[in-house]
Amino acid sequence: MASAGSAANADAAAKFWGLFQQQKEEIKEMASKDQDITQRLRSLDSSLREAFIYLPAYDQKQFTRDLDELRALLHKRGAASSGSSAAVSSGQSRVGGFRFKSA
User: What is the CA angle 52-70-38, rounded to 5?
Assistant: First the structure.
């Protein structure tokens, strides 16, 4: 028998999943329309960190991979709009407030 706490966690995780998927799709749409998605991405990242309290480990990893995918999209869009990668002397580029290490 599941405890009330685990049922509440499962309910919270399910609600977060819906919210996360909706925001993820909105961010992808905004990126395709060349809108600034940096603030939305930061907000989604912050929400994910707060949700770690009740998300199972597998879901934490999956959501983190999804966020990494969105960051890569932002990075790719930033590099394409500048015409070249903006390399900083430290070997990192900075796009929309995020730092990406160069390969």
Answer: 90
**What is the rounded distance in angstroms from the CA atom of residue 81 to the CA atom of residue 75?**
10
Give long-range contacts, CB 8 A cutoff, 24+ apart: 49-53. 51/12, 51/13, 51/16
Question: What span, in angstroms and rounded, lies between the C-alpha atoms of 102 and 93?
Answer: 7
Q: What are the pLDDT digits (tens) for 15-47?
A: 999 999 999 898 888 877 766 778 888 899 999
Q: Nearest 5 degrees, angle CA 29-CA 31-CA 32? A: 65
pTM of the model: 0.58
Count other Cβ atoms within 10 Å, centred on residue 4.
7
Report the C-alpha gap between 60 and 9 in whole angstroms: 13
The DSSP element (H or E) to which 92 belongs, if any, is strand 92-95
Q: d(Cα 19, Cα 99) in Å, to the nearest integer?
A: 26
